[in-house]
Design goal:
Structural class: mainly alpha
CATH superfamily: MetI-like
Mean pLDDT: 82
Largest sheet: none
Distance between the termini: 47 Å
Oligomer: single chain
CATH class: Mainly Alpha
Low-confidence stretches: 231-238
CATH topology: MetI-like fold
Order of helices and strands: HHHHHHHHHHH
Radius of gyration: 22 Å
Shape: elongated
Strand content: under 5%
CATH architecture: Orthogonal Bundle
Length: 238
């Protein structure tokens, strides 16, 4: 408890908010790394998830590969890529490439799986009705399936983002910046107030992101779907 309190005291010290190693700078680095990795993952995973959800093609392969990707430890990905990236360290920073790739790999599976699941859960009779009135496949996807599936898709983005924020901390042990620097440097210096400050800051950022994206997810759920998901008052489970 004293160690955690020391972490809070370290955070509240105004001098720790200034300079290159200040909390404000490290926080912006952490958010920047995480956002870039999530956006890269979305550019790859979202089109794939929407396509397999709409067409049903290669769904078994894509979903199982995505689930396999979840089993790969992010630290192992960083360690494998680190030696290859050494030749680019002068231009990008020692651990930027392995950290970025590991975070992107981590973010891809939940986005693919949720995009696929969200699209496939749309009532097939509704989809066929859309085809019956002459809607093209792209129109069915963008105007019918996507609006209904959007809350589920955002749920995948929410999961991916929180995981990436936590994983970005490991990049500090490969020489990147971000809030993980407080853990890496604190352990090296045996400055445990700094270590706990880093833990608290990363946890606070992850929880805040979770709450914000959960709110966005609720707002994107149409009133009709939200009402349908609520249990009927007085109904008993059978």
């Amino acid at each position: 408890m004293d160690a955690i309190l020391g972490g809070f005291i370290w955070i509240l010290d105004a001098s720790n908010w200034e300079g290159r190693d200040g909390i404000a700078t490290r926080l912006m680095e952490h958010v920047g790394f995480s956002a870039t990795a999530v956006l890269a993952a979305l550019a790859i995973a979202l089109p794939v998830g929407l396509w397999i959800g709409h067409t049903g093609r290669l769904a078994f392969l894509a979903v199982n590969l995505a689930n396999l990707g979840r089993a790969i430890p992010s630290y192992a990905v960083m360690a494998m890529i680190f030696p290859i990236s050494l030749s680019y360290a002068r231009d990008f920073g020692l651990g930027v490439i392995p950290t970025f790739l590991a975070m992107a790999v981590l973010a891809i599976p939940p986005v693919i799986v949720n995009a696929y699941t969200g699209i496939r859960e749309v009532d097939r009779d509704m989809v066929e009705a859309g085809r019956g009135v002459g809607m093209r496949e792209r129109e069915i996807l963008t105007r019918l399936e996507l609006p209904i599936a959007l809350p589920v898709i955002v749920g995948g983005i929410r999961t991916a983002t929180v995981q990436v924020i936590a994983t970005a901390t490991l990049g500090a042990f490969f020489g990147t910046g971000g809030l993980g620097r407080y853990l890496a440097d604190g352990i090296a210096r045996r400055d445990f107030d700094r270590v706990w400050a880093g833990v608290i800051l990363v946890a606070a950022l992850a929880v805040t992101t979770e709450l914000v994206l959960a709110y966005v997810q609720r707002r994107l759920t149409s009133p009709g779907l939200a009402k349908a998901e609520r249990p009927i008052a007085g109904a008993s489970a059978t």
